[in-house]
């Protein structure tokens, strides 16, 4: 086996491991662990012992969803006298604040300057007095038991952060953005659950997560993934992130692939930024099992693997003409070509607004990885930008 073959098979292994192999290995490790060590079942706290919570919502020009969000907040099954709803609406210049003024149980912090979500979080946390803070987005609906389930997870003193589940509301006529995103988050949620059962989830999503107030520390205002950075800093303090599938936030998929592209490029850039800022977590001698989880689940996806994925095709073509086993590489090339063809056909159908969820998978998979690579350029262009503000992506309307 010559050098080009070694490079090809190494790249193929890393790509397979990142997207499939880690999930299989994780499942086996969890099964082994739970065979010898059954998870501890902790009782729900009594009604009178439920802690005070702050439901923390950062919002920029969210007038269209404010009323629906507040109705959802009032429907949550939690004592009203122990639930404090805080909105930070910095920079909003639409009717967000006017609409919130009609809800007496909402505390609103506002300043005219828009500095981004991270700056708004840093500022708003100075006013939080409760021991637990639950972060959620303005455009999501929480299930009625979400807060009780989060409190239940915090009964474990080793848990410093609780990550809720993100769900995409599947519409009758989903576009590629909504359909692909929904399938992606189902798989991602399964991995997060297994991560948490093995040791700790590898990060939280901003749609719904909670922390112990004393573990919060301000983040640089140019932070692109505030939820991810904040949750993993808590792991660096020696705590776990518990994944709680029974506490979930539901939101619509992106309105179009163009809007989904904005999100994916920003998230990819934020992932690269996070890898650098959280680089101590790459040290397995200090962070042990979590370093393995973090690298396998997050770091590879946001750095090396997308590059190797797109390098496989040209490497494969080169091997067709240089190897002693051309038949093997011809079969692999045909499989790759078929996958790219399915992805391209999925792209074509999405442009025609034709529903075909089978082709959403290869299309969305390739789409995500292209945007990870584009994230490198996005992050480079922002290198002298101290603001965390970004252009909002539109969400599909509820039906």
What is the topology?
Elements: H1 3-36, E1 53-58, H2 66-74, E2 83-88, H3 96-100, E3 106-109, H4 117-125, E4 132-137, E5 141-142, H5 146-153, E6 159-169, H6 176-198, E7 208-212, H7 226-236, E8 240-252, H8 257-277, H9 284-302, H10 304-320, H11 326-351, H12 357-381
Parallel strand pairs: 1-2, 1-4, 2-3, 6-8
Antiparallel strand pairs: 4-7, 5-8, 6-7
Helix pairs in contact: 1-6, 1-9, 1-10, 6-12, 8-12, 10-11, 11-12
Task: Please tag this protein with its features.
399 residues, 8-stranded mixed β-sheet, Spore Coat Polysaccharide Biosynthesis Protein SpsA, Chain A, alpha/beta
Structure report:
There is one protein chain. With 399 residues, the protein is α/β, with parallel strands linked by helices. The protein has a single domain, classed as Alpha-Beta Complex (Spore Coat Polysaccharide Biosynthesis Protein SpsA, Chain A), CATH 3.90.550.10. It is built from 12 helices and 8 strands. It has helices at 3-36, 66-74, 96-100, 117-125, 146-153, 176-198, 226-236, 257-277, 284-302, 304-320, 326-351, 357-381; strands spanning 53-58, 83-88, 106-109, 132-137, 141-142, 159-169, 208-212, 240-252. An 8-stranded mixed beta sheet has the order 3-2-1-4-7-6-8-5. Helix 3 (96-100) links the parallel strand 2 (83-88) and strand 3. Helix 8 (257-277) packs across helix 12. The longest helix has 34 residues, at 3-36.
Question: What's the CATH H-level homologous superfamily?
Answer: Spore Coat Polysaccharide Biosynthesis Protein SpsA, Chain A
The CATH topology is Spore Coat Polysaccharide Biosynthesis Protein SpsA, Chain A
Point out poorly predicted stretches: none
CATH level 1 name: Alpha Beta
From the N-terminal CA to the C-terminal CA, the straight-line distance is: 57 Å
Second CATH tier, the architecture: Alpha-Beta Complex
Order of helices and strands: HEHEHEHEEHEHEHEHHHHH
User: What is the share of helical residues?
Assistant: 40-55%
User: How much β-strand is present in the residues?
Assistant: 5-15%
Number of helices: 12
Main beta sheet: 8 strands, mixed
Tally the beta strands: 8
> How many domains comprise the coordinates?
1
> Structural class of the helices, strands and pairings?
alpha/beta
The rough form would be described as: globular
Radius of gyration: 22 Å
Largest sheet strand order:
3-2-1-4-7-6-8-5
Overall pLDDT metric: 90
